[in-house]
Design brief:
Layout: E1 14-16, E2 18-20, E3 25-26, E4 31-37, E5 45-46, E6 48-49, E7 55-57, H1 64-67, E8 83-91, E9 99-105, E10 129-130, E11 143-152, E12 157-158, E13 163-167, E14 173-177, E15 183-189, E16 213-221, H2 238-242, E17 248-250, E18 264-269, E19 274-276, E20 284-287
Parallel strand pairs: 2-10, 11-19, 11-20
Antiparallel strand pairs: 1-7, 2-3, 4-5, 4-8, 6-7, 8-9, 11-12, 11-15, 13-14, 13-16, 16-18, 17-20
Length: 293
Amino acid sequence: MYQVIEKISTYTPLGIRFWDPILDNQIRDALTVTARPEFSPRPVITAYRTRSGVYAFNGLPNMRDIEHGSSRADSVSSPPTSHSFVIEVRDEGRRYVNVGFKVDLPLSYKGLFLSNLPSSPPSGPPKGFNLYSAATRTPPALATAVRGELFDNAADKQAAHALVRVTTEDGFSWFGLADEQGRFVVVMPYPTLIDGIGGSPTANNRKLLYEQTWNLAIEVLFEPTHLQELPGSRMKDYKSILNQSQAQIWPISPEEGGLPIANQHVQLEFGKEVILKTAGLSKLLVSPAASPP
């Protein structure tokens, strides 16, 4: 018969639950998540995946006392020294845009990363760390997409790392991130169907499903001077990407006498994706925030 002489418990200083806002579901597989000290290329620690699908770290530099319980992150009398780490997230399945961000450890709260954010009724606190669709992603069933290639009209190059927001008639917003080539996709469920579809036919209010259309409002947030590179990485800091200011959109190019607008309104048809582009071009021209037309 065996006897337990000693139990050793370890504390994970960082655990992240990744979330797909389109499927409203946890991302459990095909992610490679690494951490390293902010100003050092080594060591690079790869997260392991727990049974619940959370990506967690152990063995991070300067975190030994935290991991083994000799220093409490939530201690009021003697808070532990904070250390900054660079986190990089890569999707081996090419479903999501790769991202990187900084985090100070130990966290000032217990639980998963971002679990301290206040609730926002009726949705409540965030379910996890959102990852947005890569341009290579095929929309899942019962979803559609708004696609395009963004081009910086002022700098005459691709509008890399722009953030695209699509707002539907029912007030929901969906987001997409442009990659290094300015390519983006906003994957979204179809907005609410109008009356007369899917129910009992009426005399005057009956449309075929494939005749259904919706109005969408498009915004591009693009401020390249605001973007920050992560130390020792080619990635831009995810936080700086999400905090860009609104850019101007060119439905008609300036060479053709067009004027920039803040919001572009387009129509979505059931069964068809929306391709955004400036008239006569294969890409959508944008002017960064605070730049002259």
